[in-house]
């Protein structure tokens, strides 16, 4: 457990190079990843939670990797746990948008540096997570690792939790990253059994487990001993079950014509929820209200990581949510 006066949260995962054509048919480069998106928005909300935001991943020593780290540091994200591996490269993907606005993706990530976060190497690997008060990971964080390194990660999480760290898990299930649903279920169960707060997208629960009701989702989490369950349902109210609050919290109302890009809706909700939770005074329903505020803003702009000003503009609304 972190002994310093300022709290620390570690977000574990992968950031990739994103390529996409702009309106002039020119390729534009940016950086994106589910837990990275969450880390960025959480860092932008630090004035609320006063917690150091750390990103845990592996990158190469190439120019793209260096640019990523510089961007993260500019956002206020601590990068001391970013492993830099000589000769390795970040993953990359290309977004294709057809004439109907439907998106498809091409990926180059099979040899990405992030897959080697816990691999044996001449460079020191992550050996402990106990210095962090909160550790956040997603199903993608888990999926990209080889099985032997998933086992290492589960042990690191378990050891840190035994020393007082809190584990938060966001399901983010991506079938293409797993050999089978059975394999994914096996590893999800291992992580859920050491999870304190589960932030789950219901569509993914349906896809992975075949759930036909949110009660099934809640029951599975309770069997794993999870004390705080948050079920995200897009534009529908999210559902919460915890000792401090049980019920639903309405999503932000955003007119259909104002929705531009839902890419990071779930990631940004998680950031808002975590921001509230890290205050240690906000109740889960207040944290969820902040999550909805952030997500409702992000989806009105293009890209997973939007400009800073729209998030700054939420300050009064967030303060009201914390008073509610």
TrEMBL record:
<feature type="domain" description="Carbohydrate kinase PfkB">
    <location>
        <begin position="7"/>
        <end position="305"/>
    </location>
</feature>
<dbReference type="GO" id="GO:0008673">
    <property type="term" value="F:2-dehydro-3-deoxygluconokinase activity"/>
</dbReference>
<dbReference type="InterPro" id="IPR050306">
    <property type="entry name" value="PfkB_Carbo_kinase"/>
</dbReference>
<dbReference type="GO" id="GO:0042840">
    <property type="term" value="P:D-glucuronate catabolic process"/>
</dbReference>
<comment type="function">
    <text>Catalyzes the phosphorylation of 2-keto-3-deoxygluconate (KDG) to produce 2-keto-3-deoxy-6-phosphogluconate (KDPG).</text>
</comment>
<dbReference type="GO" id="GO:0005524">
    <property type="term" value="F:ATP binding"/>
</dbReference>
<keyword id="KW-0418">Kinase</keyword>
<dbReference type="InterPro" id="IPR002173">
    <property type="entry name" value="Carboh/pur_kinase_PfkB_CS"/>
</dbReference>
<comment type="pathway">
    <text>Carbohydrate acid metabolism; 2-dehydro-3-deoxy-D-gluconate degradation; D-glyceraldehyde 3-phosphate and pyruvate from 2-dehydro-3-deoxy-D-gluconate: step 1/2.</text>
</comment>
<dbReference type="GO" id="GO:0005829">
    <property type="term" value="C:cytosol"/>
</dbReference>
<keyword id="KW-0808">Transferase</keyword>
<keyword id="KW-0119">Carbohydrate metabolism</keyword>
<dbReference type="InterPro" id="IPR029056">
    <property type="entry name" value="Ribokinase-like"/>
</dbReference>
<keyword id="KW-0547">Nucleotide-binding</keyword>
<dbReference type="Pfam" id="PF00294">
    <property type="entry name" value="PfkB"/>
</dbReference>
<dbReference type="GO" id="GO:0006974">
    <property type="term" value="P:DNA damage response"/>
</dbReference>
<dbReference type="InterPro" id="IPR011611">
    <property type="entry name" value="PfkB_dom"/>
</dbReference>
<dbReference type="GO" id="GO:0019698">
    <property type="term" value="P:D-galacturonate catabolic process"/>
</dbReference>
<keyword id="KW-0067">ATP-binding</keyword>
<protein>
    <recommendedName>
        <fullName>2-dehydro-3-deoxygluconokinase</fullName>
        <ecNumber>2.7.1.45</ecNumber>
    </recommendedName>
</protein>
<comment type="similarity">
    <text>Belongs to the carbohydrate kinase PfkB family.</text>
</comment>
């Amino acid at each position: 457990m972190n002994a310093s006066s300022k709290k620390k949260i570690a977000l574990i995962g992968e950031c990739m190079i994103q390529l996409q054509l702009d309106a002039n048919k020119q390729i534009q480069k940016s950086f994106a990843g589910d837990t990275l998106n969450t880390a960025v928005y959480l860092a932008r909300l630090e004035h609320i939670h006063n917690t150091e935001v750390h990103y845990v991943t592996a990158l190469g020593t190439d120019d793209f990797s260096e640019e990523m780290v510089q961007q993260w540091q500019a956002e206020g994200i601590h990068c001391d746990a970013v492993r830099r591996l000589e000769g390795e490269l970040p993953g990359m993907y290309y977004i294709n948008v057809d004439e109907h606005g439907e998106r498809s993706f091409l990926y180059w990530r099979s040899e990405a540096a992030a897959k080697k976060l816990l691999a044996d190497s001449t460079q020191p690997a992550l050996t402990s997570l106990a210095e962090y008060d909160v550790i956040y990971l997603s199903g993608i964080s888990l999926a990209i690792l080889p099985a032997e390194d998933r086992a290492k990660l589960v042990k690191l999480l378990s050891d840190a939790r035994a020393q007082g760290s809190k584990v938060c898990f966001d399901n983010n299930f991506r079938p293409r990253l797993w050999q089978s649903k059975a394999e994914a279920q096996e590893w999800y169960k291992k992580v859920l059994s050491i999870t304190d707060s589960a932030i789950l997208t219901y569509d993914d629960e349906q896809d992975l487990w075949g759930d036909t009701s949110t009660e099934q989702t809640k029951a599975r989490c309770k069997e794993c001993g999870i004390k705080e369950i948050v079920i995200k349902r897009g534009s529908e109210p999210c559902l919460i079950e915890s000792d401090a609050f049980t019920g639903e919290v309405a999503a932000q109302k955003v007119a259909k014509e104002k929705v531009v890009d839902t890419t990071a809706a779930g990631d940004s909700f998680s950031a808002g929820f975590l921001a509230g939770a890290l205050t240690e005074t906000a109740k889960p329903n207040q944290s969820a209200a902040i999550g909805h505020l952030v997500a409702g803003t992000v989806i009105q702009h293009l890209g997973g990581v939007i400009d800073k000003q729209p998030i700054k503009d939420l300050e009064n609304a967030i303060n009201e949510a914390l008073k509610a």
